[in-house]
Design goal:
245 residues; mainly alpha; 13 helices; disordered N terminus
Length: 245
Amino acid sequence: MAIKKPLAITLLLLAASLGACTGEVAPDNARIESVGMLALHGRQPGAIAQLQAWAAAGRPVAQRELALALASIPEQSAQAGAWLQKAAAAGDQEARFQLAQAFYEGNLGLKLDQAQAWSWYERAAASGNAKASFMLARMAKYGEGVPRNLQLSATWLLEASKQGNAQAMFLLSNAYAAGEGVEQNPQLARVWLERSAEGDFPVAIQALAMSLESGGQDGERDPVRARHLIKEATDERSMRWNNYQ
């Protein structure tokens, strides 16, 4: 008997789903990450077991997702570091960043090691991770993992800014305004302040508003835009401040 088309499609989708769970069909990264979300929030009892199977088969994304899931379970968090190391060594960008964080904070079964943190942040940054570039700028500024170096800090702030990190743009603006690690340049300070504000970083929006209210160093004054920016800064701080912590 012929199967009606809608039912046939449903059966094919079900078969594909079951095949992915049993290993008959190799899962793509999106599916692994969706199972990782289920495992992280404990919404599917078999999710961690499925990630373990994929991780044991050498899938870096599964190793990373398994590590993040185990990190949220106190009695199993010590295993997370080992899986992160496997995923990071295999080239997973997010795993490299998370491993750097673990070394920087000394958790997930790993000892605090700022030199290792620097090394892994550097690898993540080379893959385009703006958060990693930002952390390198911070570490260079305060002498964490490497000797204190304001020029190197500014270099990584510029890299993080080019990669789209609005907080880095704000700090780069401050660096140009003060001549910290770079040659003092009020024009570039204003350029990066504007870009940070465009990136919805609340502190930058407020700083730009204050500059427009007072006239700033360049004498430009725009009270109307300043008032709009103050309201925008308040709204962004209440809605999105946690993004920058």
